[in-house]
Amino acid sequence: MTTRTLFEINPDLDRAALAKRFAQTGRVQVRDVLTREAAEEIQSILMKGTPWGMAVRAGDSPDTPPRGFSNAEIMAPGGADQVNRMANAAAQATARGDYGFRYAQFSLVEAVQKGWNPGGPHELLLEHINADAFMELVREITGFDTLSNADGQATMFAPQHYLGRHSDSHVAEGWKVAYVLNFAREDWHPDWGGYLLFLDDDGDVIEGFRPRFNALNMFAVPQSHLVSFVPPFAPAGRLAITGWFRDR
């Protein structure tokens, strides 16, 4: 019987070139970061084995904190209506120029803390992201030797999902580098949205990363960015694992 490796790093990465790129701009896309077999296994977990909840926010004030809904909460009586009300409020906030977002999510951290599926694939994913081999890759590319751990959530930006402009300014929480480990369809079309876009002070796009299969986006925070709107005609959601590498 063949044993599958869930999180095997591509041995052919040009780490020096990637580190040079990150040093120049504070961001980088590492394509083919894992072996193909490992990436396909994780994509399958996200597509077929993830009970998606929702993350929603309608404003950037203390009165409008982000709200996460588990799959069980959505499926409970009245749960879907509550999510839809929050999603409409997020859209209204964004229309006013305020901060808002709406996307499907499954917290890897909560899965571990609350024992949703001990030893299951999502718990193993978080373990592998925090393992020495992957953390050393991240430290080598970013140049941040003090990085010690990572959080994470599975995310899916399906049609009508988006993440408004923000900067991830949670330095006090130890956030140093944001990451998006992409497992999008290999034929992802630019018209389907879901781009990670970086903005200057005037709101102009200075760089953007297309959703890709088996690509790791990393960028130093704070840094102004957003995930562009996925239109209703997009045939699939943008799958990824996202979070922050921390120094404490």
TrEMBL record:
It holds the Pfam family 2OG-FeII_Oxy_4. This is 2OG-Fe(II) oxygenase. It comes from Alteriqipengyuania abyssalis. InterPro entries: TPA1/OFD1_N (IPR039558), uS12_prolyl_hydroxylase (IPR051842). Gene3D superfamilies: q2cbj1_9rhob like domain. Residues 153-246 form the Prolyl 3,4-dihydroxylase TPA1/OFD1 N-terminal domain.
